[in-house]
Design the sequence.
């Protein structure tokens, strides 16, 4: 566009003044709402249960960096919904799943959660993966008094009335892993993690545990998420000569870490690596030959021997293909849908208040074993399992807890964890 | 002490990885002034070339050696197509090229996601590159030695091509003074296309080599791109020598910072050093004297 | 037609129309949820106005606006967390996320953010100051063009990594869970609407300020620097200074947008401010027309709207659409949507299409 020289600063200044005036008028025109401390009008849920169906939301990243993991969770949610529908639905109503894409961005998770609650009027939402996405959604679910079922192991230290946590909290994954290592005679550890909240919290717990149990921590290193440069860290790990490595790396970083680890000649016999973010899905990308013999801590593996699991794996493969594998977060998401359905049946109502009230003690015979909702903190009891990665790329249980472990997200039951400090 | 010796090699090896990723850029950005944000995706294409080759050929060792030239061809062909279809029309608008190639990169990433799936795929490391070699008391992985050697070969080959072949002479002529070269009967269009082919091909080679140490996933290229650009900026325009020195220096810097603080802070530290360095030498380490005001 | 919009009457009627849409039509037609979304889009549009100035008028391709956006957002978020903590536990209380992480003592740099005045001053001054410093460092040394773009991009990357490492700023999770905004409850629909009005008004102010700058002598100088920096310098002007001002104003706008984004969206994390989000800010500007006043606003709103609408239907298609938009708009229509009438006009009078480049 041709630009004509025009010098009219005063006119524009007036335009600014006018707009400023507009703000003031707008402020005066719109009555101010509740101030801090005052009661606000509660949000009226718009859930409609008059028809033959009931809507629920599935909110997982279908694009972006987390899509790699989260799409598998969506598959499990849909499978569970189909099974429940085939068996007659919930309170006689068929479940209609509305899936939304979280796009791997916390902001989008918050936005879509609000859409599912306020526009689609769903009875509950299943999904979320990263803690950032859960933290972003939490105020939305509390403000609009709705329910989120979060299916991934996480760092604990949270208990919202509006969230049901069907993945492991720290005392169902990290602590059993440490117990196992201590049992096998490990006296020193090296900690390697991605630089975000879960590894930082996990390592704080590990440090406190180590101090109380006489384990020496020889080093603690963090790399930026997605980092693939591990030579410095592996050199340091190798030089430190710990009995084992505790690995809280996430995603692609694991690939580079284990390749470097294997290439400098470190093996599972010399210095085993205990990982908490590597499941069946990830082993393929790392390459079985680089990771065979290493350990992982979860609550579920595809190889768990139980009738419920055999049925789950069979149904999953029938639906999505024989080459697919099932993993812990998928199983937790599958349980989540069944737990929600069972709670609704028990409450004989879809209303959030009724479901919250009925939730305590609701159980489901899941692939990992019986899971029971804890009415106090909305987590579930889970069986802890240590798995070993074998040459077929699957994980096999080498140790499991005696029955399900009660959830303790704030580690109140552990004396050594009384004064836990995460920040440096 | 052991750690320090180890760090020396780490610096060199990190540097050689940076160099492999940046060498093609130093050609296309340094010599042609084109900011190719899709360069990272060409690296990714190289990674997937190695993967596909291994699936087809089978043996990890043979397939790696076959994949190197194929990777060069794949990267080069993609670069050539990009140059002919888009970049050629935008030579007088370098900043627009940056955004257009960013868009191309987005598309290529999504294509990779749709074709190969979002999860990382595994490229098996050949038997002869497994394990490490004991050097001065520390274990240096053979894969890293291989990458160092490859970086040296790539630099040498590029230098030889530029210096001693007719095509190289033409490239240098166009870089030195485009108008004068045209007057002398050199088709600058053909030279540009050729330069872009070589630069993108080098990205493909880098991709094949990087499968030995990193993951192969749709976002692989992104993780190398910004560092590679910093190498070229710090190294100076139009000089391969600059890219070599800058890559090794940045690699060493990164690994030293990492030893004494965390990897996250090391990244921030490297950036600060580069900004300060550009204060002292805005033209980079080495610069080619031309009449243009870049 | 374009003459009309440059006239006094045109400017006023333009503002009146925009105000009517923003303050009348939108709140009337949109549900509470969609209005909140619209407020979020407006925040992006405010960033876009700044980019339009720095890039469209000044020729500086800032690939790092996420840094300034993030600074404004984090500064505001810190205040909101402090206010929450004070409301729950009295003065000097530790924000909830720190308490959970086992921090008993408030880090010293958090303390002043209990004051709203200090926070607002920081939101205005800190990003602007950083932009001036960076601008002086970079432009005085005549680092420009692609070099500046790459440096600003690396800055965004480094800033995001730095934030992820700061546990006292929420690390990777960022800061979220805000209950009150300067004493008002955030989850009250009336207050949410109020917040929308503030955001919309901020957009109008930012556009008016941008118009003011464009029409001043300074605006002429900025365009002159963009088109022929050497000549401006030879005429005795301080070209670097001219660029620094535009860069700083763009930073200020981004910071304001970030500060509003936090109460509107309820979360800020490093994921919203790194390299890719920073480039995404440019997409709307390029589509709308980087050199025009309104183009960036319209473009940013359109892109945000398209993203929400498309991603609800086809998640992976949106990535393709984004890529294609970058390629097609910038390669084929560098003036953006705003240049369509001009392009059509030129084609009609059989001019060469290349003449459109006047706006780049």
Sequence:
């Amino acid at each position: 566009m041709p630009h004509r020289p025009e010098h009219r600063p005063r006119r524009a200044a007036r335009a600014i003044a006018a707009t400023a005036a507009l703000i003031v008028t707008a402020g005066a025109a719109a009555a101010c709402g509740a101030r801090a401390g005052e009661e606000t009008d509660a949000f009226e849920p718009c859930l409609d249960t008059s028809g033959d169906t009931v809507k629920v939301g599935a909110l997982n990243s279908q694009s972006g960096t987390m899509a790699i993991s989260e799409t598998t969770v969506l598959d499990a949610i849909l499978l569970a919904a189909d099974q429940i529908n085939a068996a007659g639905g919930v309170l006689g109503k068929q479940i209609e799943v509305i899936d939304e894409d979280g796009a791997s961005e916390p902001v989008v998770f918050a936005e879509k959660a609000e859409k599912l609650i306020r526009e689609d009027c769903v009875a509950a939402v299943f999904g979320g993966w990263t803690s950032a996405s859960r933290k972003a959604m939490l105020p939305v679910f509390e403000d609009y008094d709705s329910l989120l079922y979060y299916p991934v192991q996480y760092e604990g230290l949270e208990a919202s009335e509006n969230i049901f946590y069907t993945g492991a909290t720290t005392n169902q994954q990290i602590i059993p892993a440490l117990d196992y290592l201590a049992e096998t005679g490990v006296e020193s550890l090296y900690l390697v993690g991605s630089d975000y909240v879960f590894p930082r919290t996990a390592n704080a717990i590990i440090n406190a545990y180590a101090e109380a149990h006489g384990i020496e921590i020889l080093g603690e290193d963090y790399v930026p998420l997605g980092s693939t440069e591990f030579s410095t860290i592996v050199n340091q790990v190798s030089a430190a000569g710990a009995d084992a490595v505790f690995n809280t790396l996430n995603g692609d970083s694991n690939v580079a870490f284990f390749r470097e680890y294997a290439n400098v000649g470190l093996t599972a016999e010399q210095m085993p690596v205990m990982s908490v973010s590597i499941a069946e899905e990830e082993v393929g990308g790392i390459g079985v030959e680089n990771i065979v013999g290493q350990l992982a801590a979860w609550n579920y593996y595809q190889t768990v021997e139980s009738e419920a699991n055999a049925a789950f794996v069979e149904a999953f493969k029938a639906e999505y293909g024989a080459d697919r594998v099932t993993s812990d977060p998928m199983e937790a998401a599958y349980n989540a849908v069944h737990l929600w359905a069972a709670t609704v049946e028990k409450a004989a109502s879809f209303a959030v208040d009724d479901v919250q009230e009925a939730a305590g003690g609701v159980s489901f015979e899941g692939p990992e074993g019986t899971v029971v909702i804890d009415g106090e903190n909305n987590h579930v009891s889970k069986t802890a399992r240590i798995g070993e990665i074998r040459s077929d790329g699957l994980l096999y249980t080498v140790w499991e807890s005696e029955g399900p472990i009660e959830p303790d997200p704030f580690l109140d039951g552990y004396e050594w964890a009384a004064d836990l400090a995460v920040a440096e | 002490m052991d750690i320090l010796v180890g760090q020396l090699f780490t610096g060199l090896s990190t540097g050689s990885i940076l160099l492999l990723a940046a060498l093609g850029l130093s050609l296309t950005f340094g010599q042609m002034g084109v900011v190719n944000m899709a360069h990272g995706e060409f690296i990714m294409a190289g990674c997937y070339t190695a993967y596909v080759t291994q699936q087809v050929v089978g043996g990890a060792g043979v397939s790696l050696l076959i994949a190197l030239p194929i990777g060069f061809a794949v990267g080069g062909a993609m670069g050539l197509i990009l140059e002919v279809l888009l970049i050629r029309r935008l030579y007088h608008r370098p900043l627009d090229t940056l955004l257009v190639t960013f868009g191309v990169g987005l598309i290529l990433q999504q294509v990779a996601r749709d074709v190969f799936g979002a999860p990382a795929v595994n490229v098996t490391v050949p038997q002869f590159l497994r394990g490490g070699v004991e050097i001065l008391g520390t274990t240096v992985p053979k894969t890293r030695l291989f990458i160092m050697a490859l970086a040296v070969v790539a630099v040498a080959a590029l230098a030889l091509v530029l210096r001693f072949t007719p095509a190289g002479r033409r490239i240098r002529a166009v870089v030195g003074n485009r108008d004068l070269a045209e007057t002398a009967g050199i088709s600058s269009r053909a030279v540009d296309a050729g330069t872009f082919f070589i630069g993108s091909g080098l990205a493909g080679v880098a991709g094949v080599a990087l499968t030995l140490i990193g993951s192969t996933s749709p976002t692989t290229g992104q993780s190398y791109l910004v560092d590679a650009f910093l190498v070229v900026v710090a190294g100076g325009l139009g000089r391969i020598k600059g890219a070599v020195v800058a890559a090794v220096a940045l690699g060493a810097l990164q690994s030293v910072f990492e030893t004494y603080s965390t990897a996250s802070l090391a990244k921030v530290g490297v950036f600060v050093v580069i900004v300060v360095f550009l204060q002292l030498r805005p033209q980079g380490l080495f610069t080619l004297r031309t009449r243009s005001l870049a | 037609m374009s003459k009309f919009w440059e006239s006094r009457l045109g400017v006023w009627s333009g503002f009146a129309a925009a105000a009517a849409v923003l303050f009348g039509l939108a709140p009337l037609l949109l549900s509470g949820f969609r209005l909140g979304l619209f407020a979020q889009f407006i925040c992006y549009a405010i960033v876009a106005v700044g980019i339009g100035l720095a890039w469209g008028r000044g020729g500086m391709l800032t690939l790092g606006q996420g840094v300034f956006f993030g600074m404004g957002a984090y500064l505001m978020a810190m205040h909101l967390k402090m206010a929450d903590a004070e409301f729950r536990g009295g003065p000097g209380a530790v924000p909830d996320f720190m308490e959970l992480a086992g921090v008993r003592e408030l880090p010293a740099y958090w303390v002043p953010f209990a004051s709203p005045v200090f926070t607002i001053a920081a939101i205005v001054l800190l990003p602007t100051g950083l932009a001036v410093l960076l601008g002086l460092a970079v432009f005085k040394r005549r680092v420009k063009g692609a070099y500046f773009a790459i440096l600003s991009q690396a800055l965004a990357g480094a800033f995001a990594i730095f934030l992820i490492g700061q546990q006292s700023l929420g690390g990777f999770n960022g800061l979220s869970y805000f209950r009150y905004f300067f004493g008002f409850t955030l989850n009250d629909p009336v207050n949410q609407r109020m917040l929308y009005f503030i955001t919309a008004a901020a957009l109008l102010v930012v556009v008016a300020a941008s118009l003011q700058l464009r029409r001043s002598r300074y605006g002429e100088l900025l365009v002159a620097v963009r088109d022929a920096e050497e000549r401006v310098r030879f005429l005795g002007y301080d070209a670097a200074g001219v660029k620094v001002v535009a860069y700083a104003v763009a930073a200020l706008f981004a910071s304001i947008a970030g500060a509003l984004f936090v109460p509107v969206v309820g979360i800020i994390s490093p994921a919203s401010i790194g390299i890719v989000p920073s480039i995404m800010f440019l997409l709307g500007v390029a589509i709308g027309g980087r050199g025009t006043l309104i183009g960036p606003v319209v473009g940013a709103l359109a892109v945000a709207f398209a993203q929400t609408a498309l991603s609800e239907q086809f998640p992976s298609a949106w990535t393709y659409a984004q890529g294609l938009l970058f390629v097609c708009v910038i390669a084929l229509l560098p003036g953006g949507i705003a240049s369509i009438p001009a392009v059509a006009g030129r084609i009609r009078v059989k001019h060469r299409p290349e003449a459109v480049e006047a706006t780049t």
In short: Confidence is low (pLDDT under 50) at residues 1-9 of chain A. Chain A touches chain C through 74 residues (CB under 8 Å). Chain A has two domains: 53-168+309-372, 174-298+385-417. Residues 76 and 334 of chain A are 5 Å apart (CA to CA).
